[in-house]
Amino acid sequence: MTVTQERPAVEVADHQQLVTLKIRRYDPEVDPEANWQEFQVPVEKGDRLLDALHHVKWYLDGSLTFRRSCAHGVCGSDAMRVNGVNRLACKVLVKDLGGRDGDTITVEPIKGLAVLKDLVVDMDPFFEAFKSIKPFLITSGNEPTRERLQSAEDRARFEDTTKCIMCAACTTACPVFWNDEAYFGPQAIVMAHRFIFDSRDEGADERLEILNEKEGVWRCRTTFNCTDACPRGIQVTKAIQEVKRALIFRKV
Amino acid sequence: MHHKYDVLVVGAGGAGLMAALYAAKGDVSVAVISKLYPTRSHTGAAQGGVGAALGNIGEDHWEWHMFDTIKGGDYLTDQDAAEVFSKDVIDAVYELEHMGLPFSRTPEGKIAQRKFGGHTREFGKAAVERSCYAKDRTGHMILQTLYQQNVKEGTTFFNEFHVLDLIIENGRCCGVVAFELATGEIHTFQAKSVILASGGYGRIFKITSNALTLSGDLMSIYYRKGLPLEDMEFYQFHPTGLTKLGILITEGVRGEGGILRNKDGERFMERYAPTIKDLAPRDMVARAIYTEIRAGRGCGPAGDHIFLDLTHLPPEQLDAKLPDITEFARTYLGIEPYTDPIPIQPTAHYAMGGVPTNIDAQVLRNNTDIVPGLFAAGEVACVSVHGANRLGTNSLLDINVFGRRGGLSAAAYANSLAAHVDLPDNPVDDVVALLQRLRDGGGTENVATIRSELQETMDAHASVYRTEETLKQAEVDIAGLKARYVHVGVADRGLRYNTELLEAVELGFLLDLAEVMVVSAKARNESRGGHFREDFPHRDDVNFMRHTMAYKDGGDIRLDYKPVVQTRYQPMERKY
Ligand SMILES: Cc1cc2nc3c(=O)[nH]c(=O)nc-3n(C[C@H](O)[C@H](O)[C@H](O)COP(=O)(O)OP(=O)(O)OC[C@H]3O[C@@H](n4cnc5c(N)ncnc54)[C@H](O)[C@@H]3O)c2cc1C
Ligand code: SF4
Ligand code: FES
After folding, report:
1. pTM of the model
2. Which percentage of chain B shows pLDDT scores above 70?
3. What CATH number should be reported for the domain whose range is B2-155+352-416?
4. Are residues A74 and B500, on separate chains, in Cβ contact within 8 Å?
5. Residues of chain B with CATH 3.50.50.60
6. Which end of chain A, N or C, is surrounded by fewer C-beta atoms within 10 Å?
7. Which residues in A151-168 are b (16+ Cβ under 10 Å) and which e?
8. How many angstroms away from the CA of A115 is the closest CA of chain B?
9. Residues of B catalogued as catalytic
């Protein structure tokens, strides 16, 4: 069902354009069913999708609910499905979504995690998967008094996967994860990669053991959805391949 | 619901996560309460680096760092705090490395270091490489690393719990009241020690580098109890935010050789700070930028910004050292930094002031006495290491050094108490009444409208340049907005994830803090560090070498003053 707002005509200034946001709404306190609702929003040239969502929340319907904090793509709060693909609302400009006069942009929660309200999903299973791969440096012996040395080449080896902001865009773009919630999902493997390929870490064997389990890395079918979804440009599929190879050869 | 812990940490940014790790070493039960998932905290947005005199590139000493911190703070820095800080930061950086922080490396494999504003060798002779960094994502790496360590240690987290009150009974802190976002339930947390680590309040301004969630909640809650906030007039404007958006472009860009230019292409900082030029401290650079703009030398059709020029730097260097900020310029402004200069303007960035503490992170209730059981660390606190102006890279270490001290002090205090202090009879009453008024009061004023008017008046009247007149205007505007705030309404009546309700509460905090800032600033008839009064353009050590302590007194604000601790370095004129 689609409900369109009955409202007086929206005022649009010269430098603005009008776009329609079609948003998947769900609030079990109000209605047990989810439904679509459309809002007409005036936007300016540089506006992020997040600005348009704020316009709705602040001036049209205060009950519209989504997470956000940094507003520039570094905190990982606002992954959502935008026109069918996972994006951070704060890192995509309305104009790049075909947001020209009259266009409609659809916004839904990320898939595969339980929806709690509107665009807010239950992140706990995602964080639990992250925790299961021992996401911390594992070392033995005494610490040196100064820093451990690490060559620039060794540092470069795991650079890509240190960028992860845990937004879940990759995991919730993964068809395997949609169908099997026991699968860790790509983010947990990205995190494992970050440690397995860190020359200072000595926990690779433990982690590879965990990843080798039934619901582990072998579930990945290399569909590349995760890599396309990652707002940090992490080569997620490549990282997963490297972990698989490490498992086969048991050396990193 | 009721919970009981020995130590409670409010906030899960760098300061809170460090405090939790260190409190747990004291063999006490610890919980962290945060309105955001820990990894969403704004520590993760920090870019440039952490300053410590490791000397990995050029010779360096903690005394030089201490001196720079004090001079950078325009001598309002408490020198005992700066000394502890400059010594402790060295171990703090090694500790972060041992925890797994992936620092960038020198060719020998040591932690890489680069130049940053105001950091010098031999007491001001030349810029020194002191900022330890991980590309331009140092804060992200700190936040991730500290969170990872907390996962390792099995820390208890209450995520998406919004603290709305502190319970202080007979002068002692014994817990907090929090609102659970997912359910709307109100929880009481009883504790022997509470550590505030809730970050800054940049959202009183419109153009800011701060997250939407940085509304100074715990500062305001503390102040509403009649307890003091220190040095609130000192707020830092970072010279280089993306124009109109305020998104930060780290000083590390200038450390790598980036140059500020006016519309004539002139490297104007040569006129303002002949020795270290573009790497002068932030307050000086921010003023220089506005001076250029006011003199008609701003860039763009409206002449309202300045250019940050990186076009002479090799693209490989930008990719290797500054990948994120170049991406920000591309994503948000459509600018290619390889070939075009980045339009920037100063952006509201960092609170030097806050909840007063001593060097053991114990919170002060006046110039000398503490509030037993209450501790604070990070941007919410004022120790004061940063004085009137914080140097770049000094905050990411402040959160580590004082987070650690806070954790240790809080655990020691908890261990010294045989039992928890009893809570008052109805600790949640005030919070329930506040929420009820906002939700069911039938008000018609719009939260977003009031907030944006507040931000506009603060940008216009209380930012880089201030005068008595502009501050009076801001004061009048804020009073009007506060009167309207009483009538704000909230449309969402639900309990589940009622973020509209919490935005309304946060606006109340912002209004308080803006007012304290303006009143403190109006009384300081001098210019020092981040506080610049055009009607009193010079520093006045005779009358104002002292910290401001602002107390809520009924509907008014009462100002008192606290002496500055001076040990090694005597005030001098600040030249760079
Ligand atoms: C863009 C940017 C770049 C920066 N770059 C640098 C740099 O290069 N070097 C440097 O030294 N400094 C830098 N800084 C400054 C530095 O990052 C911050 O001052 C510092 O990270 C603050 O850490 P914190 O732990 O005090 O607070 P934050 O990281 O802001 O964390 C605050 C925490 O408190 C919680 N919280 C707040 N209110 C409540 C409440 N009511 N109830 C429950 N929880 C609450 C939040 O959920 C969050 O977890 C930068 C700042 C910004 C904005
Ligand atoms: S790998 Fe990318 S998409 Fe996945 S959680 Fe990390 S940042 Fe988000
Ligand atoms: S709001 Fe932080 S990533 Fe979008």
Report:
1. 0.96
2. 100
3. 3.50.50.60
4. no
5. 2-155+352-416
6. N
7. eeeebebbbbbbbbbbbb
8. 12
9. 282
